[in-house]
């Protein structure tokens, strides 16, 4: 059985430099968006999904665990942030914290349950757990069921940044995304990340070396879920609503697709994938449900011919790690 | 999401100064028809609503006066988040002036916020919740056709007075169902009846058997269906399967559309009582409009009251613009103008728009014909009674709309 | 009490679908080591094929019970030959992803042409109406669904556990190389197995058409519940998945009677409980 991702080259100074250059280019490009005439709402949405996909990638690409329910963290954080902002009238920064805390709590519970099984069972369990949560949110009064939480006030972050101004909001979201991205990058390259990769490659061996692999996997799950929650909390400010769409399994599927397209286990892959999929949804929206068909086809093509994803293939071609 | 259905290039570049006006008037308008294009409400709104808006533009005669009016349509898929994202993009990027239709009360209320924030115009015909002109009213919103208050005070009241004094509700679990159940319950208790129970079901439910069984066990005389479209037709069909009507309980379809009756079939639907504000076979004018409409529909369907409301609403909106002499691109201003003019069209007759945004027109109690009485493929209704608009809709004295407190 | 029996019946009907679907999943998993995410979509196709047969070909429900599983089964075998085959040797997760993609394609195509609301498929004349059993009102068709699915499940169990074909199949699952050495065409067997599993899903689809209407998304949510059923039951045994399927349907029915609010979630909650107590599932072997 081959592993889900190709072996990446060991971390070398050169690889580190490559990644830093790409990161700087990405940050610059994103920072210039408000001057480009691109609809900022679209880019902000893509940034939230990119962060979500990066968080998801932390689990699958480095931990080898395919979660099919990652939307539950985004949706939970979204609902909790939205509730905190609208009903408790908390300022934005605290609203985000509430969302992150909720996702953290949820990932503790779901992680404890789901890492008891591996492989496809793990995927099915996360999927089922997210569906359980979906039904709970459907009925819970504070989520307003099908109607969702609407008209969420954006407010002033730290009392000064007026988030109802699109440009201000854009840069806040961008900073949030970059911070999340760097954190994930740091985790991947930490000793913890290295152990995680070794578990992905050969779990029995890692166990024989004395690592308590379940604890590592659990920690990866919690980190991933909490960061996904951060993405969900940011998204509340962009969409100004929190709804069932964000906890539905089809959203979890989209996250998987984004990461797969961009490249499982690559640093920049999920970002590329998220932008590609969101752009596709945006520009092909007029084709109705054909978007679903196209997404399905991309899944099939990726799995059959293109398992490294866009970034993975590029990196492989240049023999670099990205 | 957006599809340029009809780029009606009306007239050439006649955007010249209107005679007497001191400045050049902008005579371009962009209408967005936002609806459920493929789900359970697509038949009662959907593509038919876009067509109705198009017909209203053609019939307005504004093309000849140098107006350029575009229509785009979008599919909100019954999801408030998708609906608001489309609305926001329409205002920000596509420069839409007015959003029409929007069935599904949950989406309708969410879009209501966006239209207010962007100062557009919102003529809702598809949604039922009376909150649009009550607690959540907006100076940018006009609500046409029907609402839950009206349904409760017509169908609901008639049934309670006919002896149906114990009710069990089957309620669609979102804003619409909640509003309809709330308004109907108020009518039931005011008339000495009692609600003995209820169950909420998710939107777009295929199998109602377990909910119907709960209703059956409640022994209520009336099972009130606070749902709509495909959900209502499924409930009625499955109730027949479980022998509920035969067992002596009566179904109250609080909201039933022409297309629903078509889907259920007269055999099962016969004898149902309900209320609508438009039926194609009312008079010569409605018949003429419906014939034109039906010929343009792919399915050949007759217009529902929602689609008729879109037509009437757009006609009135364009009349107001014409009276203003140009498009100020200022939602509040246009809606104020609309409210100041009495409404009159071929489909709903004479009426008015109240300060809270509610359009007042007659409502009609219908009964579904027996198969033997039906003479054609769309000949479904018998008129039972007419309720004048001022009795059917929320009296201003009861409205909690903040716009009234000036 | 009448309502309790009626809810139990509704539960048994859902249980029949769970059993047929999880049985198909178990059969496929046994041979192909793939969790067939497309199972729900193929179940939906079964219902649509029945709808087309009736409305385009004038072929009634009874023939649809036979033809729809065959047609969808052939479609499944084509999928196996053209795509799934190439995943041999890769991580199991790729099978999940590939079949998820297939499910999206199939569902999207149907949604495009038929919208997301249901198309009516009426109950065959012979099974219309209901019987008053004294303690409850039994719609005949729903009774038929329970009995027929039970028969099909047991027949499948018999085929796999008690016949020579089944013995080969089980042997191929355990040790494909050895079975190949005995001169048995293992790839063909895999294809046929996939066809069988898919056919069971399509059969469930036909059975469900008159109850649930024919909808492009009818299988999308159902399959997740079935996944939970599979996790609870474990995929070790055929009988296990049949019993778990029916049992969970009944439990759901009881929940609908005693505490309707939890009826959507009870299966998932049970899954969590089982995982906490016995992570391998009730009948499962260690993965």
Automatic annotation (TrEMBL), chain A:
One of its GO terms (cellular component) is plasma membrane. Pfam families: BPD_transp_2 (PF02653). The chain crosses the membrane at residues 20-42, 49-74, 94-113, 120-137, 168-188, 218-237, 257-280, 287-306. It is a multi-pass membrane protein. It is found in: Cell membrane. GO terms for molecular function: branched-chain amino acid transmembrane transporter activity. InterPro entries: ABC_transp_permease, LivM-like. Keywords: Cell membrane, Membrane, Transmembrane, Transmembrane helix. PANTHER family: ABC TRANSPORTER ATP-BINDING PROTEIN, HIGH-AFFINITY BRANCHED-CHAIN AMINO ACID TRANSPORT SYSTEM PERMEASE. This is Branched-chain amino acid ABC transporter permease. It comes from Bradyrhizobium cytisi.
TrEMBL record, chain B:
The keyword Transport applies. The keyword Signal applies. Residues 28-369 form the Leucine-binding protein domain. It comes from Bradyrhizobium cytisi. InterPro entries: BCAA_transport, Leu-bd, Peripla_BP_I. Transmembrane segments: none annotated. PANTHER family: LEUCINE-SPECIFIC-BINDING PROTEIN, PERIPLASMIC BINDING PROTEIN OF ABC TRANSPORTER FOR NATURAL AMINO ACIDS. Keywords: Amino-acid transport, Signal, Transport. It comes from the Bacteria. Gene3D superfamilies: 3.40.50.2300. Coiled coil: none annotated. Residues 1-24 form the signal peptide. GO terms for biological process: amino acid transport. This is ABC transporter substrate-binding protein. Belongs to the leucine-binding protein family.
TrEMBL record, chain C:
Pfam families: BPD_transp_2 (PF02653). It is a multi-pass membrane protein. It is found in: Cell membrane. It comes from the Bacteria. InterPro entries: ABC_transp_permease, BCAA_transport_permease. PANTHER family: ABC TRANSPORTER ATP-BINDING PROTEIN, BRANCHED-CHAIN AMINO ACID TRANSPORT SYSTEM PERMEASE PROTEIN LIVH. This is Branched-chain amino acid ABC transporter permease.
